[in-house]
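Task: complex structure prediction.
Instruction: return structure tokens for all chains below.
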Amino acid sequence: MAEIKHWAEVIADEALENGTKHRISTGITPSGHIHIGNMREVVTADAAYRMIVERGAETEFIYMADNFDPLRKVYPFLPESYAEHVGKPISEIPCPCGECESYAEHFLKPFLEGLERLGIHPKVYRADQLYKSGSFVEAIKTALIKRDDIAKILKEVSGKDVLPEWSPFNPICQECKKINTAVVTGFDADAETVDYECPCGHSGTVPMAGGGKLTWRVDWPAKWKMLDVTVEPFGKDHASRGGSYDTGKRIVREIFDHEPPQPIVYEWIMLGKKGAMSSSTGVVVSISDMLKVVPPEVLRYLIMRTKPEKHIKFDPGQPLLTLVDEYERLNANPEVEGLNKRVLELSHAKGICHTDIPFKHMTTIFQVAHGDFEKIMKIVERAGYDTTNEKCIRELSANVSNWLEMYAPPFAKFSVKDELPEQTATLSDVQKAFLGALSEIIEASGELTGEDYHNLVYSSKEAGSDLHLKIVEKLGVADDELEINPKEMFKAIYTSVLGQQSGPKAGWFLSSIDQDFLAKRFSEASTYRP
RNA sequence: GGGCCGGUAGCUUAGUCAGGCAGAGCGAUGGACUCUUAAUCCAUCGGCCGAGGGUUCAAAUCCCUUCCGGCCCGCCA
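Output:
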């Protein structure tokens, strides 16, 4: 069999067969928090973009913010007062926080910042500006003139009859400001205006430039024509027979005289067990939230490793750590080749810094240090990691901090207790004797490494070892009479330090805690009487 | 009812376009490191490729049928 190609290469090769000049378009409506489900569209497009460029075609990547669409309803995250804005274009509605130019900008801004961090740099268009500047006027004229032909295509392809009063153009009522209620009663192609009657009682005339927009099924092919789009990813909702890609394909050919773009159909990202991600149901992890938690490469990796037509199950809890691990492992391996190499390349976001500290380790280090960055740096240094890039370590530690707060499952969390935990009462005499002996040795030793601690604990089971001798002495038994199970000793350590029976790998866990503190804590625990 | 996409190891999946010994990661198991304890390394186990039929020297791959899951066909992306 031939060498395996990454899906983005397959897309690129197909594109190259169609021509050597390309424009890849993406479009998302910023009607709510733009989530990682939406992100798939842009990241998928970016993969195709990078590959087509690599194959040598002149290519442009654009992102269209569909901010001229109406607000559909008062979403759960909106105050009731937004009821009056339902039906108005989201570029014309006030921002929920009061600080952005519009409702649309409020959600667009964090998304565009996210793109930047993901290493994705499309040329950004805003639909309201294109409409207002008159870029759509020719398309609007054509669509109004050929209204019956479009209606026929819609009927033939989707099987639905359009209503007699249907128009491809939705005017904005000058009175109630809504874009989805007014009925078109006529138009003047020379004056470039459209007449309407609105159920609110108002009737009037609006300019084609900015006075309204084309209905979605016509708007999309009009954009293909206007921006000369050759490749476009879209969600599977558009892809079924009779859907908007099907109707768009015929409309763009027969009405606008242009070839439709090469489709890239992608599946949804499912959030854990909660089902598909969707802004309207509130099942959402926003991109900004995700970027608080993981490096951008990991998010790209999530999407690059899976073919677009396959759904992705995403869980920001424990499984996210596995994902991060997998990525780090791959990234650290200089010998990756073939498909994995491709995936890795495509996951790269430019200008992101790296540290050699695994995310998982940092979750422990961070918790040991109670989030104190100076302490974190000390521990990191003692553990032998590269500390030259403090900025990266700071970023990683911020990610870990957010993850622990937002998504970490309880068992991943622990805290070094300031006071001796009361669970210490459950320890056996042997365990207490062990802790006492351990305390003495720690106190008498110089600085101990993770390995030292590890070996030390295991030495407890060896008759004749320093630790073993001290234990038998405390218990008043003969040296060869005592059998020690290291497992129990580890439990004793976790119990007296964390108040729980297990914890992170003991050696480097202990080595990240202050030595005097440990000596004192173990000594206290050994004599603890409730 | 019509259609689209998926179904491959316990889990996540590559491979399907272009037929040629079914691959990987995680997990599990065993081992190594004086060492079961959220680390590392090595090894092993694990598959009726959803099911049935057809084409072929040869099928996870192509064709037909069928089951399961998700979604679309509401000009509400």
